[in-house]
């Protein structure tokens, strides 16, 4: 049975890997759980002690009520190293690889995996706190909720300027799409005045995220939008994940140049903040939101999520993309555009409707 948005994670979300598949980024931990007297703190400490090699920190933990738990890591190679360390240190545990139904990182996010907003390490990514005031945020939310929501996909959305076709992952042609609303005029003006966006925006997508709802890692379709994506966070803040695949462009694959290493960063987006992605951050880094109800800041503070509404401003593109990152570009490599297999509010996969921020 598919897990509904916001429903707590359970062991039913995990399963053994398909036959013939190699290591995954999730580990099955038998003889580990609350039923055996284990606490989250104790299990996390055991995991930290066993995974001492750099980059092997556990990203998320599901502690079972009986004797089975699961741990998630950044990638399969990291999980493989962690598995070896755990098997050497904890002979009472039975450790196997596992798969997650949604392949989204859920559970407890550890402080060590969250980047401080003041020290973002993604080229082309900037976060401006306090971009809107509390009063302006309240007025914006009221104006948003006064308009009709589109419930075609799993989360509620609104489109202005140009609609987005989630089945084809491109700008929708035709249709009666309203212009950018007057209530966001001040935000649009300040974004332009900031000088952070390479292009003047002409498209707005509003996304709603209830507690526990996330979106799979993705790159906004290159040929759908120009360089520069700006997103205002209203309501709840949350941690957004950024991941750069190993190969990100011609510059990384030219003769004599080693490929860029895969990287992952987690960035806190405070309420009322502005996120801007341009250049490498826009074209070469995937971004997503984990399906969980809490986030943990760098200082160790655990914050429960509440309703988040994002205002994402972009400029529609009328031609194929020819950016410097062809390995991620649908305009230069059409096979990079993977269309969703299912859409709708009852879709079982979190990746059913990407292009959210």
From TrEMBL:
Outline the extent of the Fe2OG dioxygenase domain.
200-317
What's the source species' lineage? Eukaryota, Sar, Alveolata, Dinophyceae, Suessiales
GO terms of biological process kind: demethylation
Which organism was this protein described from? Polarella glacialis
Q: Which PROSITE patterns match?
A: FE2OG_OXY
Which PANTHER family does this one have? 2-OXOGLUTARATE AND FE-DEPENDENT OXYGENASE FAMILY PROTEIN, OXYGENASE-RELATED
Query: Which GO molecular function entries does the Swiss-Prot or TrEMBL record give?
Result: demethylase activity; oxidoreductase activity
**What is the protein name stated in its UniProt record?**
Fe2OG dioxygenase domain-containing protein
Note down the stretches annotated as region Disordered: 1-25
One protein family per Pfam: 2OG-FeII_Oxy_2
């Amino acid at each position: 049975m598919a897990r509904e948005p916001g429903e707590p994670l359970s062991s039913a979300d995990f399963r053994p890997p398909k036959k013939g598949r190699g290591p995954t980024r999730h580990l099955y931990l038998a003889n580990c759980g609350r039923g055996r007297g284990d606490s989250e703190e104790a299990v996390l400490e055991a995991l930290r002690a066993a995974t001492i090699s750099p980059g092997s920190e556990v990203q998320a933990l599901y502690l079972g009520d009986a004797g089975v738990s699961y741990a998630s890591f950044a990638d399969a190679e990291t999980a493989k190293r962690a598995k070896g360390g755990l098997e050497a240190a904890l002979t009472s545990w039975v450790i196997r690889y596992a798969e997650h139904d949604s392949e989204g990182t859920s559970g407890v996010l550890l402080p060590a995996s969250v980047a401080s907003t003041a020290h973002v390490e993604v080229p082309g990514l900037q976060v401006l706190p306090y971009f809107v005031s509390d009063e302006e945020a309240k007025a914006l939310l009221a104006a948003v909720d006064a308009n009709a929501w589109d419930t075609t996909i799993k989360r509620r959305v609104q489109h202005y300027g140009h609609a987005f076709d989630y089945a084809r992952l491109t700008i929708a042609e035709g249709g009666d799409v309203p212009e950018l609303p007057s209530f966001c005029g001040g935000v649009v003006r300040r974004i332009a005045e900031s000088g952070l966006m390479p292009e003047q925006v002409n498209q707005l997508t509003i996304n709603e995220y209830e507690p526990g709802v996330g979106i799979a890692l993705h790159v906004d379709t290159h040929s759908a939008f120009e360089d520069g994506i700006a997103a205002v966070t209203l309501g709840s803040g949350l941690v957004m994940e950024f991941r750069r695949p190993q190969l990100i462009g011609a510059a990384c694959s030219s003769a004599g140049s080693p490929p860029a290493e895969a990287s992952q960063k987690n960035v806190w987006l405070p309420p009322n903040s502005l996120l801007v992605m341009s250049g490498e951050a826009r074209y070469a880094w995937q971004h997503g939101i984990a399906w969980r109800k809490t986030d943990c800041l760098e200082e160790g503070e655990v914050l429960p999520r509440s309703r988040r509404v994002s205002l994402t401003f972009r400029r529609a593109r009328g031609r194929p993309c020819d950016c410097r990152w062809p390995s991620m570009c649908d305009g230069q490599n059409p096979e990079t555009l993977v269309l969703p297999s299912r859409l709708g509010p009852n879709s079982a996969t979190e990746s059913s409707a990407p292009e959210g921020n």
